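Continuing the batch. This is chain 6 of the set; chains 1 through 5 are on the previous pages. Same settings as before, nothing changed between runs. Recording input and output for traceability.
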Amino acid sequence: MLNNPYVIYGLVFVASLVLVDTLLRALFSRHRANEDVANRLQALKQTSGAEQAYTELLGLRGVRDRDGFQQIGNRINKYIAQSGLEISIWRRVLYLLGLFVAGALIATLALNLGGLAQYGFAFGFACVGAFMILRYVRTRRIKKFTAQLPSAIDIIVRSLKAGHPVVAAIALVAREMPDPIGSEFGILNDQMTFGSDLEQAMLNMYSRVGAPELNLLTVTVSVQRGTGGNLSEILENLGQMIRDRMMIRAKIKAISAEGRITAWIMLMFPFGLYYLILFMVPTYYDVLWESSYGSYIVIGCLSMIFMGMLVIRKLINFDF
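Output for chain 6:
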């Protein structure tokens, strides 16, 4: 089918359309702060009750469940919610189709695959590519949220020392801090305004965001409400501890930089060697491509390279 030039042109057009759509969304992403505020106000106007308001706020991200976020068992939906993206089901299908087309083109033009191997590679490329992109966006948002969290805690501490209640302090964070932490604390404030308990609202926020440091804040508030104590002083110490964790993480990243560079070199070396030999001796791989099992050998090698990349990544990443 892909031997037909019109089919190739059509696939290239679809891939280009997806690429342009992605670039436009990235270009106009800075305008999402105002949209998030408008979405929160719209949800407040159209709902009555804490759980219903919370469900509507999640629905604006494309995550709809009548029992709330805690009952969502689909990991993909959870990743999409934690990434902060608003992706409809049709847009998801369009993105997967674009990645599938890109994988088919790579398999045909770069790897010279055909038949079942070509479609298998395209399917794997679409699945892995979509997961990696979604994981990258989610990780970037969590890092940005974590970097903003100490400043948000400082605002809460100063507000509590000034005599404001906790709800007013949280509303101040939602009003003064940029996204993503501003939107998340805005949803937290909306839940508490509609009567939700602070502990449950913070647990919901931790499920939406997925940042480990936010779990520390949730546990701290929960323990303080059960045992008592000076909340402002406890949060002040927690903010300093989160800053220390971020400093340690930066030091670990600097120490493991050599290992990460080595991993990238080992990952790119087989591809560089392949194209170097192909440039020097164009007929060197003819036996491989002309054989009936050559494409399966290529897929097996690519799979082992990918597994090796995962192993190396596990070795150079540190959890603490």
